[in-house]
């Protein structure tokens, strides 16, 4: 990898880090306005994160090093992921270091760590949240992989840049299998990012919360990192979705200009995506937790169907 | 020549002396000494054969060929070790008042007489004498089995006498038919009953008569081999007699009876066109293996358990000879050897275990390894050996039998697989808690006479890892003979 | 001696001899603990020697020799080729730390005398080594059964406990039946020529249904040892019963000898592979994997949990082998190579991960005398070393990058993913489903391992007795660290490892996964960089870098001050350790989703219960479904066969008489 | 070599027939004492036929076996049996396992069976022995049947001995006698066996105070728990 490649790589990650909270803010704004509330500032997430950073951390007595390490690992994994996902350019050097499978692996890594951290304090809610998170995870992870497999069957590759190249820059072709994959992917990202109908980021209602239950004990910088990480996660998922289903406008090759040129397109797509997400969240009701398996099972099935369709129709 | 005379004479002399003074305290020693002398004579005989090859002696009346020479050596060996074992064992029995001195005299005399009949049956070249020896063996063992004179032992002896007597009578009729067929070719007179002569003319013998004869001989001697469904005398006889007797019954008598059957098979194979004898042997063998394996599940008495396992193993050997061919026959002969060694060793240990715990019922025997580690390990190793666990020799023969069967008689392998599995489950699940586990009995002071056991097991182990070349040559030659 | 001066075989033989000698030495002074511990260290050193030998042999052409033992026409044949060498290396690598651990682990007065354990242990090792170098059926079977026997005695070390005896019996029984099947398999392979050497079997071209018979006998026999469905029942019984180092050895290495045997028979001894074998093996493997992992999720005994997880991993390996067979039969060597590589790589990984975890449970067991997950917790404070190493093992076995579990998983998925349309159309359809099942299994494995680690090491101690738990001794720690580093190495340097595995590929299916001039030791790209690539080291570096940068940055920018307080937990005042999730609780979602597969007895407390008690017992459906009926059937047959028994003499006479008549009648 | 005179082998066939008849009689007989008498008769006929065979085929060694038969089966064994019966006083055999007529029917079936079993052999046999082998086989079978049907020890033994007779008849008539050494051995075995049994019976009597084998039917193989 060349120096410029490295720089570009860092640039992409930086852009991701910068944009992630914005996306969250935007989604919240859309949700509020859809619910006829006065929307909070779009910059609120930034403020929250900054506020948390300056605070002093309070940690439970029996917290082990695990507890304090976890946020950093999660954050690191998410940054790593954002470096893999071709959000701006396809030919960034790091893309060849990890492919779609590794990407899913990274998400899983983050999940496992946060779940372990949640169990570390030994509170009832923590372990409860951890269990639910892992539960959602073991259903969502295969589904996500299946979605990616569908794409990689089309492009004959598991490395995301190649997939994007194939989907975006080949002459336009209709992939019916991608339709299945798209629906599945939407459901998965809802579940993975702790969104309605699986989880509700805006509540601390004991019976229903999942993600929040795990980070209950966190405060200050650790919490900030976790918030930022989850924002990144949302951003990454959105970028994956974009890369798979509306890959147009992502810069070919790796040149600073091309990358910068790709930014507006990305923002636009993210805006649309965020709005759509907010819409879904507003119109749908939260499922009972026991219904989650069915929801995710459906997603899994759709994804597998996508693969089968692809094999049947050869597209 | 002279060796043969010695081998046969020593036991007779021993028997007569012991008949005279078998109730003296040193009688057991005489018994062991006689066994030793027999063994030495047998070794001399085998050495002679190793040196000069097979021999016919005393007007062709006696025959030593690769097939019976190793059996002679084996018989002498097991007889000796058993005598050594019974030295300790029977004294304890006598102290416990289970046998009177008079009975002890009977025991010693009959033991040597039994050894004589076994050796005679093996060495003779004459079908008729073979029969006489087998019948005499029955009579002696009847007395040995009924030694304790308990109702159970009497019943066992009675069953044994009647069933084997009747069976052996069939064998005599078979022998007569054989003679009937033979004298047409060989003319009247002694020649028509000699194995050697019969084999030389076997192709010319009348098929119909021969097949009929073989059926009678098979039923007759098969009864003594303990082939299912002719086996009913065997468990009782093994269970009710003293342990040394069970050991020689399993270790020697069954082998010799099987030897007779196989000799007959050799003749019939030559005469009959089809695979008449093979199929009969395969059928009987398989039936014995399967039925015995399942009957093992129902046993409560330790000696009875291993009696059934003897039936199973005799079935395996019969099956092997039924398959025929160099490898299977080799395996059958090897299996005869290792089985008699292992099984007699097991009966020794079982006897000790029973003596220590004062019962034959397996559920009442627990934690042998704590009561007496040496007995515990002896039983454990013996059981594992008889179950066909490598590196013991039993595994070697079963390996050859099964692999050959897989190609020759594939249809039989599922039955064998099931039978071996069931047999393993049955025996091991019963033996394991006897060896291990908690026990209430105190650790006994008396050191058991386990030397014979470990000699046998060591030999079996050796045969599993390395077979002496001359022995292997005998096996090969005998296998070729059996065809 | 070998072609270029190095006698690998002699080396292996020497190692085996040393092990046996060590064992016998142990017998000399069975109760002298210090002496025996020293012996175990010696065993570890010998294992290291074995690793060196094997690694050298891996790059050498096959060597063979014979010993002056065995059957008359069949002396013991030894042979070491790439396959043997790879597994020997595995044996050595896994065993060295385990022996080191054992030297610190075994105490006096626990059932069998230490010296006897030492003997059985080293006999077990020697037998495994012999299995791997055996080159004729007889030696193979002898070593194989001796292995079973030695491990049986090790399992029943504490033979006073009836359950342990029962477990041992079940284990030995299934092992024996399996061995008989393997024996019959060799009977098929020798092709009726009476030549039991492997070289002889290679030269036989079986006709008709014989090859399939051979393969399925092998699958049955080796499956019984590996714990393939439905022959797995002994595994969850035997592993908890055995002392932890033994469990580690059995699960980490012994199961792999079964894999070795399967590969040896399928790809080496059989001269052809049929595609439908592959399909069956694949299906069976995946079923096993799913079954194992789902049952692992609901276990409450930590060693049982690990045992079921072993079943899962074996399932994955067998599935990979099945895939390899499928591709090989369809003449797609490269893909077959990838699948095979995945299988071997996963076998290697599992040897490390599972040994590590079992040893960790051993330390926990010694520190707390507690095996039930419901009574553990919070041990990370008391035993940081064990906790740290166990974390590595946990992440690895959960298949997370950048650790080793992920690599094999990645390779296997590659193999699945690039299945070109096979001639058998329904197989083409089957492959993605199989991939889905595999991924599901792996995901559940992550769930299971989080449960395992979280419940044992994290949270608050569920019992007051845990307060005086202590960390493992020095030797134990060293062993754990070595294994953890091994996991890390396998995870970060796959290219180098695959370089070795390719030797086996070259031997078995005459192809290599890495292109000939593959120089980049960072980049793992089996088919083409554009198609799929993975650089674990980079990923690892990036994560570490980000973490460090963040930490430093935060320290610099916002002087991270930190104070301790009670846990908040939504402000609930009362906080007891009993309020954490129990193992049962953690398993609940899985139980709910996979309800139909379980046989559960649940005891729910009534509202008026003085001391309410919740308990759920999950039992193996196969036990009730297959084994109990078989046992009953055997009993029934036995009672039928017993009918002619214990009747009057007249009946016996009649039986003999009828036999005679029948024979006369049909004999004519 | 065989110089057959018509009288000779008519006699032999006659004896054979008588033997068969006696066998049937034994099958039907219930009184132990008369059973023994029948056994004596059988032995006597056997001796005669042996003598005739010896004469017709001028094989001197058969005379010795005639003498042997007379001593053993006409004098010695019956004497022992009688003593036993008197000592143990078991004069009556109660109803056997199967009632007499059925036994007879089975017996006839057996005879037919053994005849056509022996037929092919008789074809190729030298003239004198044409039908005797079949008859010998038949009487063996009948004795076997008798052993099966009798409950008490002594009748069983008698059945056993008469089976021995059948064998002996087969030996002499079909093959002009086995080699002498064999015959001596056989005879010795029979005698010893008889003596052993004599001793035995008293033991049994002590233990069971009856010779009814029903006492032997206590179960040894326990059923599974």
Question: Your description of this structure?
Answer:
The complex is a heterotetramer of chains A (315), B (483), C (668) and D (225). Chain B has helices at 2-21, 27-52, 66-95, 101-123, 127-145, 151-186, 195-201, 207-225, 233-240, 243-271, 276-296, 302-323, 325-357, 368-371, 373-386, 393-408, 413-435, 451-465, 469-482; strands spanning 55-57, 62-64. Chain B is mostly helical. Chain B has a domain at 275-483. A two-stranded antiparallel ribbon of chain B has the order 1-2. Chain B starts with a helix and ends with a helix. The model of chain B has no long low-confidence stretch (mean pLDDT 88). Chain C has 23 helices and 5 strands. In chain C, the strands form 2 sheets. Chain C has a two-stranded antiparallel ribbon. Chain C has a two-stranded antiparallel ribbon with strand order 4-5. Chain C is globular and about 105 Å long. In chain D, 49% of the residues are buried. Chain D has 225 residues and is an all-alpha fold. Chain D has one domain (6-215). Chain D has helices at residues 6-28, 32-56, 61-88, 100-124, 132-149, 153-175, 180-208. In chain D, helix 1 (6-28) runs antiparallel to helix 2, helix 2 runs antiparallel to helix 3 (61-88) and helix 3 (61-88) packs parallel to helix 7. At the A-C interface, strand 1, helix 3, helix 4, helix 5 and helix 11 of A face helix 15, helix 16, helix 17, helix 20 and strand 3 of C.
Compact description:
Chain C has a domain at 625-667. Helices cover 68% and strands 4% of the residues of chain C.
Main attributes of the structure:
heterotetramer, B: 483 residues, mainly alpha, 19 helices, D: 225 residues, 7 helices
